[in-house]
Amino acid sequence: MKKLVLIICALAVVTACQQKETRYTQQSPEIDSVKQLISEYNAQDYSMEVMADTCKSYLNTKTDFLSKGDLMAYHKGNDANYSKRGFLDEDQDYEMVVTDNGETWVNCWLDWQGTVAVTGKVIDMPVHLTYRFVDGKIVRQYGYWDPSEIVLEMQAIEQMENAKSEEDSISEN
Q1: Distance, CA of 140 to CA of 119 (rounded, Å)
Q2: How many CB atoms lie within 10 A of CB 55?
Q3: What's the pTM?
Q4: Which Gene3D superfamilies does its entry note (predicted)?
Q5: Is 48 exposed, middle or buried (0-12, 13-18, 19+ CB in 10 A)?
Q6: I need a surface site. Which of 42, 68, 104, 112 has the fewest CB within 10 A?
Q7: Which residue has the higher pLDDT, 36 or 168?
Q8: Among the listed residues 154, 144, 68, 66, the one whose alpha carbon sits nearest the alpha carbon of residue 108
Q9: How far apart are CA 111 and CA 87, in angstroms?
Q10: Residues 94-145: pLDDT tens digits?
């Protein structure tokens, strides 16, 4: 009987001492990589070294992706619309999860702010980004936000420019 109790105690100690794989954390090298990517975006540095060359980015879509090169062009094209833009430092949340299938993902919830160059209007927007990692590199990115306020502002600018163009055309005649 004593041997049985000792065996059970030994099994309990061995089982309790075994390290289990971390499935959720708020501190990891992958989170640091995402923070680096966010920092580079804010600095308008699009080297994206933490992304694999084959990375696919899905921004507000589930079907149409941007390659790494297309993503750089996308960001550079959008930068022309703003005198200032970037993710804010406050109230940002990051988490890393390992799925049941063993995939490593980093999720982040961020606040983005941009000042429209033409009008000076400041737009605040919550953004959710999630990144899949393989061998320390980002291989997939999904980004979700509501672009309505930006779209409406850009449409108003376009209407303003069209009206000015029409005025110029009338005054020439």
Answers
A1: 35
A2: 21
A3: 0.81
A4: 3.10.450.50
A5: buried
A6: 42
A7: 36
A8: 144
A9: 6
A10: 999 999 999 999 999 999 999 999 999 999 999 999 999 999 999 999 999 9
Tokens 């923070």 appear where? 35
* Residue 15 token pair: 């089982």
The answer, yes or no, to whether residue 172 has pLDDT greater than 90, is no
C-beta neighbour count of 125 within 10 angstroms: 16
| Distance from C-alpha of 59 to C-alpha of 66, rounded to nearest angstrom | 8
- If phi > 0 it is left, if psi is from -120 to 50 it is alpha, else beta; for residue 111 that is beta
Rounded-to-integer distance, Cα 71 and Cα 24, Å: 28
